[in-house]
Design a protein that fits this description.
alpha/beta; six-stranded parallel β-sheet; 16 helices
């Protein structure tokens, strides 16, 4: 493998896995963030305009616009996107027993983890008669989006629904793209997972239009049932879904602008090349734009991993998709001088999924500050988190893990503060309130306190 500052592996290999060499370079955080592999979002402005057009169409023409979008994007004819109850029941009844058992196990583990996430309410007595509380209250209604394009992500039904239920949300709606091969309904495994979880409000709506429908609602007419607006929209998706979530944020709450999946692996010379390559491929098969990044201080490991990538990618089912993702600007190997520098690179990259394959992996993992989820050691692959770890796989991408969290119970909760003071307790601080209101030239604030202590008021 050549190791100039930005090169590719020799052309004799059937893929081009970028190599970026940070060795001997003392880079600042800003320089690291600029230099790590990232997808080139050249279509961001175009995506935003397309989503704005979809927002306008859905808000002005409702179900007529949704039918037109389903025809144009999904190739299906649709009168109303609501999935009939009998279709949900049929999907569950016909579900492969092995898949059902796997879904049930995933649900069980996700529930156990989610039910322990709800934070406790807090009551603080600051003085006699001075009580301040913080109560966690669920939002009233949520809209959950489950992708169904290149892969029918039935597991995402679990990841969205379980924490919402654990939070106490009473009204849950779910949307997934209509599939031409399944009569214009979402993929039957997605429907079966929804039915298994007791979700009966399911819509065959894909992409940005699903996000828009949840955010603004769609009025009904005649026999058409409306889609009621929600308080929070969650779920992963492509650039159009992420853009739609960004544009409706403020109208509704969102979990994050989760885009195309990404994996980073921090590995040293003790790592097993075959495992590293397999895990990079596991995320590359999601999407041609998926990011697979190896960070290592071992050039020998990097060479061995590239050879394994070429071998395993050629044998995997979605080989063309995997090779395109691995060869893109968002993927590659980053060579570093030391584990210390590798940790700095990982914190700058802020991966959606970060695997630690080093000596004393738990200690190294404890030093990571920025990641959607951290997978420790050889037996905690990202695939485990995608399905059965109990953790949530809806995670922040594109570096946003530096300031945002993966989907969890608190996504569906609000912290409401409650203030309950007696006359005596207010009197103890009334002078301070008057002083501060005067200092801020807001005397009405002080007057609102003083009037409570005037005789006869």
């Amino acid at each position: 493998m050549t190791t100039s500052s930005d090169t590719t592996v020799p052309a004799t290999l059937p893929l081009e896995f970028r190599s970026i060499d940070f060795r001997g370079r003392n880079l600042s955080l800003a320089e690291l963030r600029a230099a790590v592999p990232r997808a080139q979002h050249q279509t961001l402005a175009e995506a935003e305009q397309k989503v704005l057009d979809i927002i306008s169409a859905v808000r002005s023409r409702g179900f007529d616009a949704l039918s037109e979008l389903a025809r144009n994007f999904d190739g299906v004819e649709q009168s109303h996107p609501r999935v009939p109850a009998e279709a949900l029941a049929k999907a569950l009844a016909e579900l492969d027993p092995g898949v059902r058992a796997a879904l049930e196990e995933s649900i069980s583990r996700a529930k156990q983890f989610a039910e322990q996430q709800r934070p406790a309410n807090v009551d603080v007595a600051l003085a006699d008669g001075a009580l301040v509380s913080q109560n966690w209250i669920p939002v009233g209604r949520v809209g959950l989006y489950v992708p169904g394009g290149l892969a029918p992500l039935a597991s995402s039904v679990i990841m969205n629904v379980v924490p919402a239920v654990a939070a106490g949300v009473e009204s849950i709606a779910l949307a997934s793209p209509p599939q031409k091969n399944f009569g214009g309904l979402p993929h039957p495994t997605i429907l079966a997972a929804a039915s298994l979880l007791g979700i009966d409000e399911v819509y065959a709506i894909g992409g940005a239009q699903a996000i828009v429908s949840f955010a603004y609602g769609v009025p009904g007419s005649g026999d058409e049932l409306p889609i009621e607006p929600v308080d929070v929209v969650t779920g992963p998706g492509n650039i159009f879904v992420a853009t739609a979530k960004r544009l409706v944020k403020g109208v509704v709450g969102i979990d994050s602008e989760a885009g195309t999946t990404e994996i980073a692996i921090l590995a040293d010379a003790t790592a097993r090349p075959a495992l590293v390559a397999a895990d990079l491929i596991s995320q590359a098969e999601h999407d041609p734009k998926a990011a697979s990044v190896l960070v290592t201080d071992s050039a020998d490991l990097a060479d061995a991993v590239v050879l394994e990538l070429a071998r395993q990618a050629a044998a995997t089912k979605h080989s063309a998709r995997v090779l395109e993702a691995l060869s893109g600007p968002q993927s590659g190997v980053v060579l570093v001088d030391s584990l210390e520098q590798g940790i700095a690179v990982c914190n700058a990259y802020a991966a959606e999924h970060l695997e630690i394959m080093t000596a004393d992996a738990p200690a190294v993992a404890a030093r990571i500050r920025n990641a959607g989820a951290i997978f420790v050691g050889d037996y905690s692959p990202v695939s485990l988190g995608d399905y059965c770890a109990g953790s949530n796989h809806v995670l922040p991408t594109s570096g946003t893990a530096a300031f945002s969290s993966g989907l969890n119970v608190t996504t569906f909760l609000r912290a409401v503060q409650v203030i309950n003071y007696s006359r005596e307790a207010l009197g103890q601080v009334s002078g301070h309130i008057v002083s501060l209101s005067g200092a801020e030239d807001l005397p009405g604030h002080g007057d609102a306190v003083k009037i409570r202590f005037v005789e006869g008021s």
